Amino acid sequence: VMLSRWCPERKKYEHKAVSSCSLALASVHRTNITTVEGVGTLKKPHLIQQRLHESHAVQCGYDTPGLVMTMFSLLVQYENISMQDLVRNLSGNLSRCNGYRAVLEAFKVFTTTPSKERKYL
Predict the structure, then answer these.
(1) Is the pTM of this model over 0.70?
(2) Furthest-apart CA pair in the chain: how many Å?
(3) What is the pLDDT of residues 85-105, one digit of tens each?
(4) Quick count: other Cβ atoms within 10 Å of Cβ 66?
(5) 121 burial via Cβ count (<10 Å: 0-12, 13-18, 19+)
(6) Is 111 exposed, middle or buried (0-12, 13-18, 19+ CB in 10 A)?
């Protein structure tokens, strides 16, 4: 999931991807939570979901929600990301059957163009 919380010191929202199953409920008080269901739909998938599909990076589907949310959080947090940012942030996503090469290939497009995700929130 992606957590979004207002930071009064910086006077802006801060966004980060977290593993929802290891998060205490009380720690998300006054926090907006975006789940994978809030990113795209079946009829109009988000570009992240389209890229995974087009690159054949989805196999069993076990890891897909985590990959989508990690990438979405990165695009919301930063206007420009590098391949190193991508690898570092995806490293916590576990997969049963994916070799990650197709995932990195699918997401490489996001390292070449600035992200506009933040202004849509």
Answers:
(1) yes
(2) 43
(3) 999 998 888 887 877 899 999
(4) 19
(5) exposed
(6) middle
